[in-house]
Amino acid sequence: MNAPLKIGHVFVPGGQPIYTYNPRKSSSLEERLEDYLDAPYKILSLTGSTKSGKTVLARKILPKEEAIWVSGGQIESSDNLWSKILDSSNSFNHITQTKADSKSVSDSRKFDASAKVMNLGGGLATAHTNRDTHSSQESVSRITNPIFTATNFLIDSKIPLVIDDFHYIDPDTQLQIIRSLKDCVFEGVPVLIIAVPHRAYDAVRVEKEMTGRVQQLQIPPWQPDDLSQIAGLGFDVLDIDIAKPIIDNLILESFASPHIVQEFCLSICRINKVRRQSSSKENKQIIQAPADWNKFFRNKANEMGRKEFERLARGPRQRSDRKVRYFENGEEGDIYKAVLYAISKVGAKDKLEYEEVRAGLKDVLASEIPKSQEIGRVLEKMSEIAREHIEGEPVLDWDKEYSTLYLSDPFFAYYLKWGAYIPSSSDKRFT
User: For the whole model, what pTM was predicted?
Assistant: First the structure.
């Protein structure tokens, strides 16, 4: 009899789900990826927002044993990529050739025909030969070009190459990689690059000759029903009874992230002291709602987006002359922290208008409100910091033309709402 499943084997935030994998059949994502693999004479750019399930989808169709997987975060130069391909394929670019050289030395004494005589035994006198053999070996080694060896392996084997987090690779290295992979693509090697949406066509941007040779597969946003299905699949396999309103509350605060949903489901099992699958389908374990939803969601916040928040709160550089602002909850800080708190106050939605940010400042500040020009300057500077000083997809982006702030990272948005600004006791965030 199989041992009961542990909750960590079912709900796997950050891992490859087995029991809670939702293919979202209505989007035909798996079929479209399979269609590409049937005719892979382009680079496929698989894109989606942070934590949207890009890698999970690719791993489902192309598991590690059936493809070469390389993480863009580990590629500091193009040589790193070729070395990883050679390592994965057990190929070598150091060749040794050995040549053997043998010499024989013979000492022969032959009887001249005229010297043949009959001996007493009636036999003939025969020739006597003494042979001595010497051998030697000579080794010659050479190192082949790793690009040549790696690309030849890909072309010969047609094994798919997947470069995850392609946007982490600097543009010059991207250019070297794409140029070297052009022949592979032409020969029908599947090349899949996984990136964030605004970097979908990096391959074309760095190498204009790839225009028309890059195909995009966009991961659509997750809908509440899709996310509820993840929770439902997991609780069913664990034989757990949970009320729909509890799942609805988890989905509501997930920022449409399947990763966060997995994290919530795992946590709510733990606070209910549920560690593994029920031993009997007839005796289902019951999950109760948290006694304090505020506390539940805040306890998860430190695991998400805190580092990015702290970097943005520092601003472009540490300055002692920034005006100190006083907040209604008793804290103090400069304008960068005040703007982040304002976003937190209005709920850290994926899109905020300027007036919402300003309204948030009015709510969080106990002192005077900054001028409009100053608020706009800070939002522009934060957007610059997010692009240039924080790895990965920018966690926020300020569109000056439309006076709109976009929050693209669900972890960062979650921290803003539940971890950044702790309101006074009279301010009820969640009911």
Answer: 0.78
